[in-house]
Amino acid sequence: MDEVLLAAGATAADLAAARMQMALSLGWHIVVACLGVGMPALTLIAEWRGYRTGDPAYRLLARRWARAMGVLFAVGAVSGTILSFEMGVLWPGLMGTYGEVIGLPFSLEGIAFFIEAIFLGVYLYAWDRLPPVPHMLAGIPIVLAGTASAFFVVTANAWMQQPTGFDEVNGRIVAVDPWAAMFNPATPPQTAHMIVAAFMVAGFLTASVYAVAMLRGRRDRYHRLGFLVPFTVAAALTPVQVAVGDWAAHFVAQYQPVKLAAMEGLFETVAGAPLTIGGVAVDGELRGGLEIPHGLSLLAHWDPNAVVTGLNEVAPADRPPVTVVHLAFDLMVGVGFALLALSAWAAWSWWRRRDLPRTRWFLRAGAVSGVAAVLALEAGWTVTEVGRQPWIVFGVLRTTDAVNPAPGLVWGFVLVTAVYAVLTVATAYVLRRMTRSTPVPAALEDSDVDSFKVV
Questions:
Q1: By Cβ atoms counted within 10 A, which residue in 56, 207, 368, 414 is the most buried?
Q2: What is the residue-wise DSSP string for 170-216?
Q3: Per residue in 279-320, pLDDT tens?
Q4: What is the pLDDT of residues 406-446, one digit of tens each?
């Protein structure tokens, strides 16, 4: 591989730096983007409930979440701008060759971004200047535009998984159909998986903040609703995400069998393939994992005796890093089912007593759920991106052929790392100052203190 890189003008260190920089930028931005997609909906729910019930706790939640939403939108705009530059600077072999194929979703995302920005400005500025109903209606385009932005961006990534909408003749791209490229076979499962994940991350992450406060003794109505509203949204979507994830896995089994083999650490093509939990790849085999006989064949093809393609069907140079993909997939699935169990626990308690479980263990789990949802999100994107390697455009363009051949990409990675460190600290500082500058009124902190006792 090093010889190929040197021939192209890049080094192995530059390629690694470019990939790490992209991973850092995407991994950071995706969390903020999920909050940008999910928090407007949570805010509107709280505002609507406050309007319907007249409850000041709902109104205060909506107002606080709206202010946080504005900060996160600004931060997301910064990280999104960095990403847009990185696509061209780090990967000219991709954008220079296929820019006209995948340019449409990025253009549409830009339009959605501006719509979201305009209505966010109206929503924040007109809080006390519009009647309640028109103000809530002004928030709906924020939700729709944020979701649309996520959809358009993920369609571009889906194209990288299943490239369509063009022909290549003598090294030239011809017969470009941007709509066919955007609505490629990977678009439906991948966009659905990401959008549901965005609402889950926003819900569990917001709820976890209030779970921590409740563990510290602040069990008034304000904090209880601050936990209940986002947790309910996230919990309701968790079984939906499990079903969508199964759909996505079947898609991978059909269209990307090598990625599926890496996800499960399967090296040999075999009928009745086992499902392996855990383990690491050593010398062409997965060691230390727990095998469930026929499990992979059953889950991937609904047939316990179905043949599943192994990694040995392709050359070693065409295989993704098995251990990373396999463990990331196990982490994503494990956390997903843990969140499903937590959601079922809450649903069972609510069905029996119309109340949340009255135990500190539930609040502890709720406090961890936000970080857990983020870990599952990052692990899922690791599977998606690393599992596609060594291709940046699956089966068409290798990552080594797309990277910028200019030397010194390592220094760009160092600079961007510093920028994101500063951005992280600044965002946390601003959000914390905003919270402290608008304390919860004593009347709300004293309300319904005994309505949620935990033991």
A1: 207
A2: TTEEES--HHHHHT-TTHHHHHHHHHHHHHHHHHHHHHHHHHHHHHT
A3: 888 777 788 878 888 888 888 888 888 888 888 888 888 888
A4: 778 888 888 888 988 998 898 888 888 877 766 666 555 55
- Contact predicate 176/166, CB 8 Å: yes
DSSP 8-state code for residue 439 = P
**Is there a contact between 400 and 318 (Cβ–Cβ < 8 Å)?**
no
CA neighbor of 409 nearest in space, from 157, 96, 91: 91
- d(Cα 117, Cα 192) in Å, to the nearest integer? 24
CB 194 within 8 A of CB 150: yes
Pairing mode, strands 167-169 and 280-282? unpaired
Nearest-angstrom CA–CA distance, 268 and 250 = 19
Q: How far apart are CA 334 and CA 420, in angstroms?
A: 29
Find, among 60, 330, 332, 39, the residue nearest to 205 by Cα: 39
Nearest CA to 231 among 353, 64, 347?
A: 347
CA distances from 165 to 101, 104, 169, 256, 394 (A): 7, 12, 14, 18, 14
Are the C-beta atoms of residues 225 and 345 closer than 8 Å to each other? no
Token pair 């990694």: residue: 311
> What 3-state class would DSSP assign to 261?
helix
Residue 347 in tokens: 């649903």
Return d(Cα 35, Cα 77) in angstroms, integer. 13
Distance CA 58, CA 52 (A): 10
pTM: 0.88
Closest to 95 in 3D by CA, of 402, 405, 390: 402
Alpha helices in 221-359 (DSSP H): 221-255, 257-264, 295-301, 322-353
Q: Are 231 and 204 in contact (CB under 8 A)?
A: yes
Whether 71 and 431 have beta carbons less than 8 Å apart is answered as yes
| All residues at 6 or more sequence positions from 359 whose CB lies less than 8 Å from its CB, including other chains | 454, 455
